[in-house]
Amino acid sequence: MPSSNKNIFNIDEIRKDFPILDQEINGAPLIYFDNAASTQKPKAVIDAIKSYYENDHSNVHRGVHSLSIRATDLYEASRKKVADYINANSTDEIIFTKGTTDSINLVASSLTKSIQPSDEIVITTMEHHSNIVPWQELCRRTGASLKVAPIDDNGELIIDELERLLCKDTKILALTHTSNTLGTINPIKEIITMAHHLNIKVLIDGAQAIGHQNIDVQDLDCDFYAFSGHKLYGPTGIGVLYGKEDLLNELEPYQFGGEMILKVTFDETTYNSLPYKFEAGTPNIAAAIGLGKAIEYIESINLNACVKQENVVTEYSLKKLKDLSNIKLIGNSENRSSIISFTIENIHPHDIGTILNQRGIAMRTGHHCTMPLMDFYEIPGTIRASFSFYNTESEVDEMVAALQTACEMLG
Amino acid sequence: MPSSNKNIFNIDEIRKDFPILDQEINGAPLIYFDNAASTQKPKAVIDAIKSYYENDHSNVHRGVHSLSIRATDLYEASRKKVADYINANSTDEIIFTKGTTDSINLVASSLTKSIQPSDEIVITTMEHHSNIVPWQELCRRTGASLKVAPIDDNGELIIDELERLLCKDTKILALTHTSNTLGTINPIKEIITMAHHLNIKVLIDGAQAIGHQNIDVQDLDCDFYAFSGHKLYGPTGIGVLYGKEDLLNELEPYQFGGEMILKVTFDETTYNSLPYKFEAGTPNIAAAIGLGKAIEYIESINLNACVKQENVVTEYSLKKLKDLSNIKLIGNSENRSSIISFTIENIHPHDIGTILNQRGIAMRTGHHCTMPLMDFYEIPGTIRASFSFYNTESEVDEMVAALQTACEMLG
Amino acid sequence: MNMELQNLYQKTMIQHGNNPLNFGKPQEYEHTEEGFNALCGDKVNIYFRRMENKLINFSFVSVGCIVCKASGSLMTEELNNKHLENVATSIDNAMIGIHNGNLKNDFFSNDLMTLNQIKKFPSRLKCALLPWETAMRLINNMKNNAR
Amino acid sequence: MNMELQNLYQKTMIQHGNNPLNFGKPQEYEHTEEGFNALCGDKVNIYFRRMENKLINFSFVSVGCIVCKASGSLMTEELNNKHLENVATSIDNAMIGIHNGNLKNDFFSNDLMTLNQIKKFPSRLKCALLPWETAMRLINNMKNNAR
Ligand SMILES: Cc1ncc(COP(=O)(O)O)c(C=O)c1O
Ligand SMILES: Cc1ncc(COP(=O)(O)O)c(C=O)c1O
Questions:
Q1: Architecture label for domain A47-299
Q2: Taking CA B172 as the corner, what is the angle to CA B169 and CA B174, rounded to the nearest 5 degrees?
């Protein structure tokens, strides 16, 4: 049973909702600090997928038989849950994709015909490859230019510089809500307002923000918002593109095939209405249902309580890490998420990763798919701890101890 | 436990491997005859997904920690299973996609730059929308022409006409292995040889062939072979594009982001090697693992035995249906799969579907995403029974009885 | 034979479905619109003329199922000769009534009550609604063009 | 402290990793090649010159981890001054040996035996292999260009 209707945030109970956490790695209890790469799944999500396959599976949308109706209803109910969770105006604005990468590619690809060689696209230094390369390719296809808004040494966007970059030729500003390497939370609401004054459309890469703060797309007034289910305690292979209805209507379709068409002859094809226009082929029904369940789960334990727990662990961890003499934090943004990157003098992140793992601690080391950001800091990579609400301060103590060992061993 | 190592094909035992089959719909036992739309999942597959999330989940490829290594190993082991199952030359030739539609879109989109206005692309009248619209769009983008190879009234390709269509300007022949509406199995090996004499590349839509016959891509010598996991007793949201290594190497990448790059700067991006070049973003790890398990399951019960059972039920069903006076079979190919389409005089397929469902029988009615084929036969749609190895002759008897009731009721 | 099914395919439905009234493309018409249900392939074409404030010669063609055809037959009967200002409201009410299975015969004809059965077959709702949706679109188009 | 870990990061590895031999871009070189590990960001550059049938001034630069640097250090020691015809075989054997954890000291230097520990850390295999793979590519390129 999921721990629903908890009045107080009982972390021991909540950890029991995540079967994977209860295991040993190399003889030590697993400490999972790699949540920015992917979060773990509560039992409720795993059971929903199992139950779907055991009871309700069929292809959606085109059947008159009961299984097909059930599968369709479950699938569309998940769309509704996503729409409500991010406060979209309608379910037509929720496109199910494979993940954040797929969502961003959809927009960048579908914009091709509306971009001129004189147009500009603005991104930032702290973007994930998934929010860089699709725009590079769009520029390559169209002759448009890619501009990069710089950051300062703390890993914060330099808003003045960004403002200077935005101009009447800018068609799209694509930026991350929260940096997956630095933990920086960008002031996107202000930035969106700024961009809209110049009629610039804004795509937000929400991969690291979703599940770690409240998202209200209408309040943000963003034009597109992209995220992955697997980083929101949901299954792999499912993601979301939110888009304002009129913008989605204007966009060219992305993939072509069943579901997304209304009528096909060999001479001509008529596309279906939203959201189906962008969902070619059999969708990932089971994962969409799992994602809906993940949202239900988070709401049952209360997102605000989750964020609070993450903040406690993050603060504690920052304090402890700052005590270690040879550690350098990469990213010191004021407004930050539960992601901490650092380097250790003279020691390569990769070696640290191995030693941490030997003590059961799962952390990511490397460039975190943000190579241009590594170039900015002139480092080969970082060691990254990224927390979820199921992490604890005593787990942080274990990490700090392991880091000390590593320094002794490799120094 | 999956019923592995069965020496004889015991259908009662096998049905127990599929939990969903054991239920009632509208008071009658479920009869699932909608396998061409999507197959059901054996317990082994459902359990593999559950076990993955409960024990091994993490993001793949970029981690030094144990969960990440386990997830990567499981994911790549599935790729190996797929490669072996269709006898690919190497795992580099196996691209994991979202499904058949995604696979075909990948090829059609990535070919854009290599197609000239004078080029021609050939498809057939019996293609699924997923193997029509991506090529229409490729032609629209490039100015190339789309040619359609005709079929005869029996629903067989007219090979002479196809041969006449193929010429030195033909760049791609895209055709289905098995028609999802007619059940026709095309003689693709001969067709591929014919096309290769003219240097034409051949993409096979294997959505309906996979799992219903042995596929050996090296023996077929096809250039691309596309299929979906969910039609092969695997999860939703996963599919495969097989491509010959040198062709995949020549193709432009499709989606852009993490995983598919080797190196990113703001000026330039270097793509990763196969198969990663085509797998941007976090892949559908759980579903890939589920697909590997599905293949294991089929091998454990023996594909040849499965096909035999499907043929028995298909033959029986054809015989019974031919006895009904007002039924017209759509598709009378000599070499056919376990898919039967028909119409009933003066009764719309949709009404039949409702009546069948009221007796627990899940069948699909409509155009089956083959509208141009419906135009060819001048019908609005068909009623389709599509069998799997877990179907029986007594289920066919139920269907026939329900059809008789329907005719009485609506006639 | 299952009761609910018999309720769906009762006499009125079968009659109107197999021999729909006002069926066929009229030789003269002023307004027409095509409706299409991508999911099952149902198609309807709606026709009418306007005479002063009334809509006349309301007719339709359909390659749809019995439910769709019966619905078109009953709809054209219902709407023909109606005042333009009342038509949109009638359609609205009928669509809501079909959805909820609570069409009332103080407002609509007795025959139309047969569509109250559709609610129990949610996959068929689209079939029953298609003629009404198409008629509504046609009326909106007509109004917009008149402006 | 865990035994396997100590075996991996034993004295030889730490020494060669933190103070690699033959490290640095030489002022003069004839052949060079860059190797890159996309998954962790490790990078190596390999350099050498050919003098008659020998490869000399074998050196490397790396921003990799200890394992990668130690492997580069040990490799350059091993391959420097080798006959061209033997180099490819040595690399091949070393790579297989690292993979399987069975490098033998009748063929390789004693220090190189430290790389036998990598097998127990499969995620680090790529780090250890990167210098060797890059050297192999460089040698193949050289041979191809010579044709
Ligand atoms: C012949 C054929 N091609 C392509 C597809 C599309 O497969 P998917 O919807 O899994 O992408 C299907 C299934 O509907 C099919 O039957
Ligand atoms: C900021 C950011 N953007 C995009 C992505 C890509 O997400 P996915 O791999 O799920 O497509 C990630 C995750 O790796 C991320 O952290």
A1: 3-Layer(aba) Sandwich (3.40)
A2: 140
